[in-house]
Amino acid sequence: MASMLHEGLLVLFRNRPRLAPELLQDALGLTLPVWSEARVESAEFTQVVPTEYRADLVILLSNGQPIFAIVVEVQLSRDEDKRKSWPLYLTSLRSRVGCPTALLVVAPDAAIAKWCAQPIELGHPGFTLQPLVAGPDSIPVVVDKQAAEQDPELAVLSAMAHGQREEVGAAIAQAVIGASRGLDADRSSFYVDLAVSSLSEAARRALEALMKSGSYEYQTEFVGQWIAKGRQEGLQEGLQEGLQEGLQQGLQQGLHDGELTALFEVLDARGLEVDDSTRERLRACTDLSQLKLWLRKAVTVDSVQELFTPGPAPKPAGRKASKQGRSTKSPKSRTKR
């Protein structure tokens, strides 16, 4: 099953097919023919080859007729089998639409992007596929709110490629949240979710601090919901921690009350009167070891005030062993013969 990140990246291109040729032209420097329309085409290639092959996405550029086609592949990990299928995608697509084609690989991770960019040798002289890869080195850092509003999909892609960078992650997410104002509720929610989930922990804290500072101007309804969601998650975590802490405190309180009750019962059984001030002093003690010491002292003291006399509790006197007299045996006399 495709991951949310994989599907999220594809949604950006489905919602804005122009994003693919813009990346090829602006980020990767590829010269494209003049086009007026970009639309999503079928990514199935079963019409050309009997085995089922399916690319992630196909974008067709046209100017009255098809003039250029782009295979968009999202790559989040190394997959040699997938790389082997890329030349087939291009040749099959060219056969189907009858115009030039190019492969655009989107890889937000720098190491994966470098791996994807390796040329694919097909063996035929001059027939080497050089994948065009949009990775962190080529995907722009979008922190300008106007740029994000003009191309929110590119801003989200920027967050997914650079969100782990503490110095820019929060600013990119801020731009995405600002751009989400002009989108429908579902699209806005999804884009902000993608952007925020791509941030490092440090970048998330920076974004939260920015939003709490009052300097953040895009207090949209969804952002409020996002903050509330974070607070709810924090509340649940706090409840779990509080439950554990409460159980521990309850155990300690139970031990405390048990020692205190035993102390009062011993004093009462021995006829030692406890006045109100002393009773409050004993109740106010939260040191379990001190209560245990007083309980041991209560067995031997002659007055309640002696409980507070410094020093350890006296040990109960042990029974003295009775002395046994030594029996004197007279030496046996030897009879002389």
Give an overview in words.
This protein has 337 residues and is of the alpha/beta class. The protein has 2 domains: 4-212, no CATH class; 239-308, no CATH class. Helix content is 51%, strand content 10%. The chain contains 12 helices and 7 strands. It has helices at residues 4-15, 19-27, 80-97, 110-116, 145-150, 152-162, 166-179, 185-197, 201-212, 221-269, 276-284, 288-298, and strands at residues 37-41, 57-62, 66-74, 101-106, 120-121, 128-129, 132-134. The longest helix has 49 residues, at 221-269. The radius of gyration is 40 Å and the shape is rod-shaped. Residues 306-337 are annotated as: Disordered.
Task: Offer a few descriptive terms.
disordered C terminus, 5-stranded mixed β-sheet, two-stranded antiparallel ribbon, alpha/beta, 337 residues, single chain
Mean pLDDT: 81
Which value, in Å, is the CA radius of gyration?
40 Å
As residue ranges, the low-confidence spans are 215-222, 318-337
Please report the total strand number as a whole number.
7
CA-to-CA gap between the ends? 116 Å
Region (Disordered): 306-337
